[in-house]
């Protein structure tokens, strides 16, 4: 039940600064800082590191961590730290770019399905349910194989598969808003359907969709790394965490950090994104 | 004898649930003339709100019209029971009102905003609303209801449909809202269909009453006459269920 208050002349003061709200949501704050550190490193790496991520130096291979090479060198004498951060550039860029189109398409289709219902909803739900019935990685590997290794293949794969999750979430939310009085009210007051969807339902659906986006990005990152590891993702010599883990495998007993460090980087990014997602969910729930 | 055409004429309206076809509203008829207020009273589930929604053309999913006709000579707009629920929680109230003015009165954006602010004034909402963006959650229930009424009036309706507009409100606010609606009706001259289960409000607001029970109108007529001399046993029961105000000890 909503509290009912006496008709007071002055409403309580709401909206406080975005910064103070960020401060009161520790998980969002922690996640944002973790992500910011990573992004900053990725942007500034040409200034930080004197090494080239792809230039080999066979006279200095498999060196342990030192003052010159903070995380040592790999089997081809490339600086591991430099490669790690350049790989973050590759993987994070793909992650964000490969999420944009599916996010927009998914939210759009989900909203239409939820709002208009009827046959449109049936068709869209049928497609999403069919995709859901297949194991995610099965589809990813098949499409990635079919479209060829490299970045293009990853983009095609995720544009084909990625929108499903957003469509499902948005459809459910929109359908529930559709039953609420304010949508009915807006319709009887004569607002056009498109207007109701874009200006009223979209802002209500977006917070949830963005929280889902954050968790979905974690899954996408792991998928990108997995494809790289399996050799059907990013092709060498472009630095990528997946191929780095694979390349370090033969040396796991002597130079374990070659595989462990990129693995840790995946976990770090995953935690950061999850924290941001959780934090945003908390923030919007409180409001 | 020719009489003036009624503003709203409902004849033999029947509504049913879609699967199964359970009858929810059973062949009801009433008419509403210009400037009149018709009250629909009865307990929860008697079909009052459904009737109102049928007049508005807004039947919930799963309910359909199975018989009868609704003839309306004027546009209608609705005031909802839960004012907070009738507003988009993430859109500033002034913006929502402006939007309705923009689409219904076909003014420019700037003129729409001016007209919206004027409506807010007329409904006695504080100036603080105009200067900063206020969201529905920042307004009291009564203020929200005023905004909802303003939005309905922005449609310049010939008939205002009120679906228990005071039930979700505090008692002290109920009276203010009722008085506001009455004053606006005098000023603007719209007709009203007023759904309520509160007989006191019905007696104060309505010129005609329809008593509903289980989807049927059991009794209808002039409000005063009907309440003073109820014929149907259900109406009598409804009236007896109103708790009398106990006489205060020591007071004269």
From TrEMBL, chain A:
Residues 88-277 form the ABC transmembrane type-1 domain. GO terms for cellular component: plasma membrane. The keyword Nuclease does not apply. Keywords: Cell membrane, Membrane, Transmembrane, Transmembrane helix, Transport. The keyword Transport applies. The chain crosses the membrane at residues 28-48, 92-116, 123-146, 152-170, 205-234, 254-277. Pfam families: BPD_transp_1 (PF00528), OppC_N (PF12911). It comes from the Bacteria. GO terms for biological process: transmembrane transport. It is a multi-pass membrane protein. Its main location: membrane. It is found in: Cell membrane. InterPro entries: BP-dependent_transpt_permease, MetI-like, MetI-like_sf, OppC_N. Belongs to the binding-protein-dependent transport system permease family. PANTHER family: D,D-DIPEPTIDE TRANSPORT SYSTEM PERMEASE PROTEIN DDPC-RELATED, OLIGOPEPTIDE TRANSPORT SYSTEM PERMEASE PROTEIN APPC. This is ABC transporter permease. It comes from Paenibacillus faecis. The lineage of its organism: Bacteria, Bacillati, Bacillota, Bacilli, Bacillales.
């Amino acid at each position: 039940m909503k509290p009912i208050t006496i008709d007071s002349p002055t409403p309580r003061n709401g909206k406080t600064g975005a910064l103070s709200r960020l401060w009161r949501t520790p998980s969002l704050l922690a996640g944002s800082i973790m992500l910011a550190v990573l992004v900053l490193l990725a942007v500034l790496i040409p200034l930080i590191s004197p090494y080239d991520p792809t230039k080999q130096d066979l006279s200095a291979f498999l060196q342990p961590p030192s003052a010159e090479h903070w995380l040592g060198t790999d089997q081809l004498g490339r600086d591991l730290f430099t490669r790690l951060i350049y790989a973050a550039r590759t993987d994070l860029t793909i992650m964000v770019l490969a999420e944009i189109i599916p996010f927009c398409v998914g939210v759009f289709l989900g909203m239409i399905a939820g709002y208009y219902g009827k046959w449109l909803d049936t068709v869209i739900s049928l497609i999403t349910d069919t995709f859901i019935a297949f194991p995610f990685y099965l589809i990813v590997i098949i499409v990635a194989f079919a479209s060829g290794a490299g970045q293009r293949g990853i983009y095609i794969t995720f544009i084909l598969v990625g929108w499903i999750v957003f469509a499902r979430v948005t459809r459910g939310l929109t359908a529930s808003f559709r039953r609420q009085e304010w949508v009915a009210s807006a319709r009887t007051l004569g607002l056009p359907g498109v207007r109701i969807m874009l200006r009223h339902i979209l802002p209500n659906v977006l917070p949830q969709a963005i929280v889902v986006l954050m968790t979905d990005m974690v899954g996408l990152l792991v998928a990108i790394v997995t494809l790289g590891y399996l050799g059907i993702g990013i092709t060498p010599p472009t630095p990528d965490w997946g191929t780095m883990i694979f390349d370090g495998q033969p040396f796991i007993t002597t130079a374990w950090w070659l595989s462990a460090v990129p693995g840790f980087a995946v976990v770090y990014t995953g935690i950061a994104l999850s924290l941001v997602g959780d934090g945003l969910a908390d923030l919007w729930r409180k409001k | 004898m020719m009489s003036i055409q009624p503003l709203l004429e409902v004849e033999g309206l029947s509504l049913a649930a879609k699967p199964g076809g359970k009858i929810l509203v059973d062949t009801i008829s009433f008419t509403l003339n210009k400037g009149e207020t018709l009250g629909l009273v009865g307990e929860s589930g008697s079909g009052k709100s459904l009737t109102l929604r049928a007049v508005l053309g807004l039947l919930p999913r799963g309910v359909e019209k199975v018989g009868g006709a609704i003839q309306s000579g004027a546009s209608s707009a609705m005031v909802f029971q839960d004012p907070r629920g009738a507003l988009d929680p993430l859109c500033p109230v002034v913006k929502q009102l402006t939007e309705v003015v923009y689409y219904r009165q076909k003014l420019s954006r700037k003129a729409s905003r001016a007209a919206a602010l004027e409506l807010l004034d007329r409904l006695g909402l504080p100036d603080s609303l105009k200067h900063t963006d206020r969201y529905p959650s920042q307004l009291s229930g009564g203020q929200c209801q005023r905004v909802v009424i303003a939005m309905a009036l922005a449609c310049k309706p010939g008939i205002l449909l009120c679906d228990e507009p005071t039930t979700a409100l505090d008692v002290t606010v109920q009276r203010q809202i009722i008085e506001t609606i009455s004053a606006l009706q005098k000023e603007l001259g719209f007709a009203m269909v007023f759904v309520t289960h509160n007989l006191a409000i019905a007696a104060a607001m309505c010129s005609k009453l329809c008593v509903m029970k289980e989807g049927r109108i059991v009794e209808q007529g002039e409000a005063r006459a009907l309440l003073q001399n109820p014929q149907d046993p259900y109406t009598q029961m409804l009236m007896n269920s109103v708790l009398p105000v106990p006489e205060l000890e020591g007071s004269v």
